[in-house]
Amino acid sequence: MTPLLEVRNLRKYFKTRYGTLHAVDDVSFTLEKGKTLGVVGESGCGKTTLGRTVLHLTEPTDGQIFFEGRDITYPRKKELRKLREEMQIIFQDPYSSLNPRMTVSEAIMEPLILRGGMSRDEMLEETRSLMDTVGLAARFENSYPHELDGGRRQRIGIARALALKPKFIVCDEPVSALDVSIQAQIINLMLDLQEEFGLTYMFVTHDLSVVKYISDEIMVMYLGQVVEKAPSDELFANTLHPYSKALLSAIPIPNIHKKRKRILLRGELTSPINPKPGCRFMARCDYAMEKCNEPQVLEESSPGHFVACCRYKEIMNS
Ligand code: SF4
User: Fold this and answer.
1) Which of 131, 153, 293, 306 has the most CB atoms at less than 10 Å from its CB?
2) What is the 3-state secondary structure (H, E, C) of the chain?
């Protein structure tokens, strides 16, 4: 079956006055329709740039992007317009992505107005239906974003993303700014919407615990590169890369009798500007050796589980 999205050797570099910043460096993955890919890493690892490049909010430096089998790496204007409907984004901070002068219904209606082709009454009806779909009570129709809590504001962001009936949504840290209890509500809503509309998500976050419940597959990124990729359950059961292990160790276990040893990341973050060919995690890795200076390639350790660390077998058995 043709995947909904396929990314091959994608690179996004930025020229800076200090050299070339390798924000996304040779990233490849496929994403089946109706599935969720979690993309995890610290801030600056390239995960947001990856999402934005796939959506053509910024142009790729190299590589290829396929959507439903079509090469969309360099789309023409008309194709890009269509893609803008099929591929959407939900932002981390709905407050800053919403116009404070627009009411809830105006904000949700905006994408419909921009696309055109519907009467005012049809758009209003559609807006009310979208509010209902995302669990926003009709009484908020004329409220302004500052009058609502973070969860409701994020529901507006989700309704806006859904307005044009997309197939694929990049969710860029959609729950990071929310309280834990509201995070769960929004994630449950996103799961329900995925089932109802057959949506495909790329869920970008710094928090591994958040993606655990929503992702079919998880990709861990470090300084622009994928260091580990596996089905969600497999990644949590058999974490292989030292960086993924450190991220995992930061997740609290909901059991007072059990404790997980937190792995603290020490050492300086390597600069993503003109990076050396070896492992980019080397400066912070307790297992670093001479051979880590060689470029690290993703190796399949078990079906569907890839890791870019030349020492992962030794580490596993130590
Ligand atoms: Fe650590 Fe070396 Fe593996 Fe990089 S390649 S994660 S430095 S052991």
Assistant:
1) 153
2) CCCCEEEEEEEEEEEECCEEEEEEEEEEEEECCCCEEEEECCCCCCHHHHHHHHCCCCCCCEEEEEECCEECCCCCHHHHHHHHHHEEEECCCHHHHCCCCCCHHHHHHHHHHHHCCCCHHHHHHHHHHHHHHCCCCHHHCCCCHHHCCHHHHHHHHHHHHHCCCCCEEEEECCCCCCCHHHHHHHHHHHHHHHHHHCCEEEEEECCHHHHHHHCCEEEEEECCEEEEEEEHHHHHHCCCCHHHHHHHHCCCCCCCCCCCCCCCCCCCCCCCECCCCCCCCHHHCCCCCHHHHCCCCCEEEECCEEECCCCHHHHHHC
